[in-house]
Amino acid sequence: MKMIVAVVQDKDSPRLAHNLIQAGIRATKLASTGGFLHAGNTTFIIGTSDDKVDEIQEIIRSSCRAREQVVTPMSPMGSQLESYIPYPVSVQVGGATLFVLDVEQFLQF
Ligand code: 2BA
User: pLDDT tens, 25-38?
Assistant: First the structure.
């Protein structure tokens, strides 16, 4: 058995949840926050048999897309504030960040 942990953008979350339900895949959604942008995102936890991992990866791939996001970096530690000019930079976020883990035990009581 595998556990797929997928971090996706909030904008893609309803589509992904819908597509997983349509495919009969069970998942748990967690509200999460990106460590870099400090923006909200959504983390899906999906427990599944090994043979469904490819199908689920394809559902996630087709449900999520990359977007440009503009971020203004915080001042570097120890820098002279008067000489620091924060220029906005553009980063590409997503489609999705996946971790696929082996599950040692799956229990339901
Ligand atoms: P954030 O940490 O808010 O990162 C948003 C985007 O900012 C990233 O998109 C990446 O393009 C950029 N970024 C992140 N850290 C950076 C850094 N140190 N230097 C320069 N640019 C950086 P994605 O890579 O698509 O990641 C989207 C979200 O997925 C992340 O939001 C985070 O919540 C999660 N994530 C990505 N990699 C992860 C990892 N190795 N472990 C845990 N969560 C991860």
Answer: 999 999 999 998 89
Digit-coded pLDDT (tens) for 2-26: 999 999 999 999 999 999 999 999 9
Cα separation, 59 vs 27, whole angstroms: 13
CA of 37 from ligand 1 middle (Å) equals 8
Task: Go through the domains of the chain in sequence order and give each one's CATH number.
Answer: 2-73+86-102 (3.30.70.120)
In contact, 60 and 98? CB cutoff 8 Å: yes
For residue 109, the CA-to-ligand 1 centroid distance in Å is 36
